[in-house]
Design goal:
With 475 residues, the chain is of the alpha+beta class. The protein has 18 helices and eleven strands. 43% of the residues lie in helices and 12% in strands. InterPro entries: DNA/RNA_pol_sf, Retrotrans_Pao, Rev_trsase/Diguanyl_cyclase, RT_dom.
Amino acid sequence: MTRVPFGVTCSPFILAATIKHHIKKFKGNSEVHEMLDSSVYVDDLFYGGDSLEKAHQLSTDAVNVFREAGMNLRKFQTNSTELKKIWIENNVTSETENDNIKILGLIWNVNTDTLKLEIDSLLEMIPDLKCTKRHILKTVAKIFDPVGFISPFVIRVKCLLQQLWELGLDFDDAVPQRVRQNWLEWCAEVETLKSFSLKRTLFSNYDVDEMEIHVFADSSTKAYGAVAYIRHKRTFEVQFVLSKTRVAPVKKLTLPRLELLGALIAARIASYLKSLLRISACDTYCWTDSSIALNWIKGSAIRWKQFVANRVREIQTLTDPGKWKFCEGRENPADLLSRGCSAQKLLNSEIWWSGARWLSQPKYLWPATVERKIPEEITELKGVKTVVQNITVQKPEHPFHCLFNKCSSWCKVVRVAAWCLRFIKNLQKTNDRTKTFLLTSEFEEAQNVMLKYVQEEAFHEEIQRLKINKPIKTH
């Protein structure tokens, strides 16, 4: 089969696999191969160049690569009027009256080179919605904001949805008046987002070595998340990159643990950006307003309880603990993420779109990290286990003890003991060993040994007290 059938379940996979296989043939041209391998999404290609000549060359190479596979790469769009004229002449694009183009769910205005959210469909749907869990869920699903431009606004309705799940309402049940009022206020603010737009480019003609990544994390009892910025070291220009937020778990966690979850998202974002922007060597700073979470991150993971230890271990793997810093809550842009805000406040928020004010200043003006004492009850230190082992130690039995059980008389006990003592002495000699009958002296020695043993057994406590010059207890 040499064609990709449409409508078959496996068609998307076959198409993607075919494109990947074809692109591998052009590994010799590293720049074109890297562009196509990393920037093709299904049947769309998203890429750019630092100059008109570079962009034109890349587009020409891409067309030639796909032409060899029998695919017609066309409908090119650009923010450059000169490049668009060249493409029209080459018949790879056409004149369009609409300046707004949809790219991966976002709207790109090619004239102003800005990005907007597609909210017209949501505005059309809102008047027909009923105040039920089903319709509130529809509003959440209708907002497509993969970059997290308006996360502080969206998190409000997500928290409302969580409240409805906790109340145990069915999808078509009427919601409580308090939730209804909050949702209607939120719907009324959606119209404000029509004026939202953001520059598509981060920086123009920037040098990777002059870039810094700054990620801010914050949490509240309702939500937690992180927001990232790119900062230019020389010009101190700061640009919003992306944000990520989550509703706090239904199972209640302490605020320090929630702060740690926010820090974990920050670490993942930092690692993702370094990989995505191919700036793995750039300086990366992570900021939090939680002294407790900062203390955990800078400490050894094995010191903490399992919940904290697992997350600290991942944070330390993804980021450098030495680059984690403390900032005050009022200077933390992620505070908007964790608490939510109105649409108008979000659009007018300088701290959200440009980061903390001191990011636009030299490094020596950044807040200093102050060591703070953490209360012992929330340090999450592992409990120290005390292991007690009871060992029964038997008192070693005297070698002559068994004689009293095996011999029928005192004389026999002494005689056997005498033979045992002679045997021991003969073992210590190499020559002149005694081989005659038992001597009287050997009997006397054996009798003394046995008497001493009997006395130690019968009067052990008294003998021990006498050895340390203590009086014997009287009964």
